[in-house]
Write a structure and sequence with these properties.
The protein has a domain of 241 residues: Up-down Bundle (A middle domain of Talin 1), CATH 1.20.1420.20. The protein has eleven helices and eleven strands. Strand 1 and strand 2 form a beta hairpin. Helix 2 runs antiparallel to helix 5, helix 2 packs parallel to helix 8 and helix 9 packs antiparallel against helix 10. The protein is globular.
């Protein structure tokens, strides 16, 4: 990873995100539906200033649950599972005393665990054996309805491709206004364009530096002169009051979102990735976006809230048929809590139809922000259980 790696220790995806829900894109997986079901192996990772050694460091292929705990480090707050330069899974924003987990079905091969900020930030992780069955794009072996899960992963691919298509169009509307020096149009286009990014952000995060190039905040870059993307232009519009010098940044943003479009076209997913990404999108809303730090200049945070929830809900809806067959109580609980969150957000909408938007987040009182966060937390808790049901 280079010096411009996105270290959103207070932010992402998140979590395994994913967003959007497929926060991770599992490389090198495949499999046959007849492979016997294998028990889930737990790997524990303790975050410290020294590093993040996985225990055990070698496991058999199949379902693997990574349980991550911050044992007291103020600077090491996330861990990622990587393979061939791609982020397969991650858990972020784990401040001292907090813990989190994600589950994936892994094939045999060499992986690494990465924790930015540690003295030893990379540790080796090995999966023995071959293909597990139900790898990327397929359904896991075992009792979970395979047809429903295959439909879910294919549906998520189509959703991601559709959202990125809209992102390309919306971004071009935004950047055209920036290049034209039209401040009013740029302001109006900023929040709606970013919604299509936030709904699938976990997917973008898996592609290394592409996410920070598109969406880094100033906190995320070591060299401000290399800061690019939506938030760099956001600062120019709302804080600096000038679009001078922003045309090259706008050009690069267009190029980066088109690169994202190219990459997502060929990606495939596994069911647990949808669940992991949905859980992490929810966690990101309740831990970092609720503070207002994401869109600190424009205060368009509620657009991000809505798109994160939309992305998480899409994952749930795709997984719901299989989940309802296996654990109907959990499916019903999630449906009710998604409804609570959506109803809570609706109070802050303004306008209708194509012109509908959200109020300036700086006008939302602290107690109301906390209510929003509490509702999202109440949803995130059962959502965190879904990956274990569909892996």
């Amino acid at each position: 990873m280079n010096a411009f790696r996105n270290d959103r220790t207070g932010g992402t995806a998140a979590g395994l995100v994913i967003a959007a829900c497929g926060v991770t894109l599992l490389a090198g997986c495949g499999g046959g539906a007849d492979t016997p079901s294998r028990p889930t192996t737990e790997v524990k990772i303790s975050l410290s200033d020294a590093g993040c050694e996985p225990s055990p460091a070698t496991v058999p292929s199949g379902p693997v649950k990574f349980s991550i705990t911050n044992t007291g480090s103020g600077k090491v707050t996330e861990a990622e599972l990587q393979k061939d330069g791609k982020i397969l899974g991650e858990k972020e924003s784990l401040t001292p005393g907090l813990s989190g987990d994600f589950t994936l079905r892994l094939d045999g091969g060499a992986y690494s665990v990465y924790c930015p900020g540690a003295a030893k930030d990379t540790s080796t992780f090995t999966v023995t054996g071959g293909v597990t069955g139900g790898g990327t794009g397929g359904a896991p072996a075992g009792p979970t309805p395979a047809t429903d899960l295959a439909t879910a992963t294919h549906g998520y691919h189509d959703y991601v491709v559709g959202e990125v298509d809209k992102l390309v169009t919306g971004t071009k509307e935004f950047t055209d206004a920036v290049r034209a020096g039209d401040m009013a149009k740029a302001k109006a286009a900023f929040g709606p364009a970013r919604m299509h990014y936030e709904s699938v952000e976990p997917v973008a995060e898996s592609f290394g530096d592409l996410d920070p190039d598109i969406d880094a905040r100033i906190d995320d870059v070591k060299d401000p002169s290399r800061w690019t993307g939506f938030h760099r232009i956001e600062k120019a519009i709302w804080a600096d009051g000038s679009l001078a010098g922003m045309a090259p940044i706008a050009d690069k943003l267009d190029a980066d979102v088109n690169t994202l479009k190219t990459k997502v076209g060929g990606e495939t997913y596994q069911p647990a990735e949808l669940a992991n990404g949905a859980s992490d999108l929810l966690t990101e809303v309740s831990t970092s976006k609720v503070t207002g730090e994401e869109d600190r200049y424009s205060h368009t945070d509620l657009y991000d809230f809505q798109s994160n929830i939309d992305g998480a809900r899409k994952c749930f809806e795709l997984l719901e048929p299989a989940l309802a067959a296996k654990n109907p109580e959990l499916a019903q609980q999630l449906e009710a809590r998604f409804t609570d969150v959506v109803n809570g957000l609706s109070k802050y909408k303004q306008g209708s139809g194509d012109t509908a938007g959200y109020v300036d987040y700086s006008t939302v009182p602290e107690d109301q922000r906390r209510k929003l966060a509490d509702a999202v937390n109440a949803l995130a808790e059962p959502m965190s259980k879904v990956a274990g049901q569909v892996v």
